[in-house]
Task: structure prediction
Amino acid sequence: MVTLSTRLKIIGLGFIALIIFGGGYYAGSIGKEEVSIEVIFGYPSSENPDQVDYSHTFKNTEHQAIVDNLLMIYLNKEKVTSVDVDVNHPDIYMQVISPKRSTSLVDSRIWFTEAGPIIGQRDGGNWDNNIEYYRIDENDGRYIQEIIEDQKEERS
Result:
């Protein structure tokens, strides 16, 4: 037969467990993860060619693997000295931004050329001069195109 003191111990342990798990749940629900990095892709606006419509966003809280892959692609780019691209008409615009700090970390343009995908990164305040060009692997270029297409299909 279970004594009264044993019952009280069981009820007390259950109550303590409930407090611990309830506190953990509460802490987890109020401490939601904030977006620290967004990779956004855009295209020239069909209505205003000087405007860029950034319609594809990948946030580290929702697409961590994609953000990691894109950053690895960016880190593994190979510098090139001569390219044949129109700096004002890229195929895709790409930015890496920190919404938490309201700042753009990377501002790039991507061209898909016969020689392979090229990333242009401005080194200064504008796109008129001081642009560094880099080549990325064909597979990496296809990956960028595929994730954008996949996101288009998800929205449809």
